[in-house]
Write a sequence for this structure.
């Protein structure tokens, strides 16, 4: 199975330009799973909720149409961040699409910084997407700092955790080694690069998108400041073996009756 990410430098509010950047990076590539950054088509640094609403879309919008086209070209299931409009609410969400349709969305549960001003927090229980050949988990950016997110996905059976991100803190890439090791899952963190200065906020994004193995090995690490894409072949069955040795299994050895969570 081939999994990969695209690391972009979006221009705020210019969806078509951002679509074109992704399309050029995917040209000629085939894969099974491709992950794009959080809010890849819009940019991140909003100055008002009205601005965020103006860039939001329902599930049949331009971003979904573009991603389905890219799924048809690459043969991949694509996971990518967008602003999801649902009635009067907007969510920092990820679209999961195939070459035929939108499979579903994940709404970010743990909102970071001023996201709490613009977005409603995710209002759905964590779930996985059973794609037949594999079970797919999705989390978005700051979800990484809460180990319960990845653990919940792994306990539900996720083979791969896809992780669209707009990271500004310097810790996540190292932390994903632990997230994968403690759950024995693969993860694809698709981050962005560049700087956005809007209003009083000035964000510099950390790049270094990463594919992390079930055993904590880093299979791919992107540059910190370069538009980039990479694709890695993996053995998905390795994520289904939760044993560290003949005596230890990371799930069977858990002692929930002693935990105060």
């Amino acid at each position: 199975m081939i999994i990969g990410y695209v690391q972009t430098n979006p221009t705020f509010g210019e969806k078509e330009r951002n679509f074109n950047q992704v399309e050029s990076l995917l040209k000629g590539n085939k894969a099974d799973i491709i992950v794009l950054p959080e809010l890849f088509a819009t940019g991140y640094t909003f100055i008002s909720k009205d601005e965020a609403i103006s860039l939001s879309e329902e599930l049949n919008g331009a971003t979904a149409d573009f991603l389905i086209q890219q799924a048809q070209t690459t043969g991949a299931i694509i996971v990518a961040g967008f602003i999801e409009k649902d009635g009067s609410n907007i969510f920092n969400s990820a679209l999961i699409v195939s070459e035929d349709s939108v499979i579903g969305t994940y709404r970010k549960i743990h909102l970071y910084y001023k996201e709490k001003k613009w977005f409603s927090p995710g209002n759905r229980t964590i779930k996985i997407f059973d794609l037949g050949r594999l079970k797919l988990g999705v989390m978005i950016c700051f979800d990484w700092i809460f180990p319960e997110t990845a653990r919940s996905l792994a306990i539900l059976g996720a083979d791969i955790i896809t992780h669209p991100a707009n990271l500004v803190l310097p810790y996540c890439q190292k932390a994903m080694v632990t997230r994968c090791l403690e759950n024995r899952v693969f993860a694809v963190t698709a981050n962005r690069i560049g700087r956005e200065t809007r209003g009083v906020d000035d964000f510099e994004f950390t790049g270094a998108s990463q594919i992390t193995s079930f055993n904590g090995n880093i299979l791919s690490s992107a540059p910190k400041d370069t538009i980039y894409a990479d694709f890695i072949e993996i053995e998905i069955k390795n994520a289904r073996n939760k044993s560290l040795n003949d005596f230890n299994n990371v799930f069977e050895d858990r002692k929930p009756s002693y935990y105060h969570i």
Notes: The chain has a mean pLDDT of 97. The CA atoms of residues 77 and 98 lie 5 Å apart.
